Amino acid sequence: MQGECTFESWTTTSVTLLWSDASAASYSYTFRRPGGTFGTPETTDTTSGSISNLAPGTTYEFQVTPSGPDVAGEPVTCTGSTCMYIEHSSYSTAVLSL
Question: Are 80 and 35 in contact (CB under 8 A)?
Fold first, then answer.
């Protein structure tokens, strides 16, 4: 797959990925903790996907692979972290890292 994978949004337990290659009929996307094993992929016919039930403040690798007739694309991988919220009294501060 040509193009890149980026993050549209993220929370403490989820991310929404975007990818710039719109040439395939569909895409599969999955994730893992660095050094771990990629899970079962989700499939979509759009250039975005959401992953939930992630651990707060944790780094993950996300992989997007194009599929469909006449498509033999290579996967694209991006790395990012979920948010970690620190609450104290009447305020909260979000610590983000990508």
Answer: no
CA 57/CA 29 separation, integer angstroms = 21
Using alpha carbons only, what angle is made at residue 58 by residues 21 and 52, rounded to the nearest 5 degrees? 60
Strand order in the sheet with 5-10: 5-10, 15-19, 48-51
Q: What is the pLDDT along the chain (98 residues), one digit of tens a residue?
A: 566 888 888 888 999 999 887 778 889 999 999 889 999 999 999 999 999 999 999 999 999 998 877 766 788 889 988 887 644 444 444 444 43
pTM score of the predicted model: 0.77
Q: What is the DSSP letter of 69?
A: T
Answer yes or no: are the C-beta atoms of 27 and 3 closer than 8 Å.
no
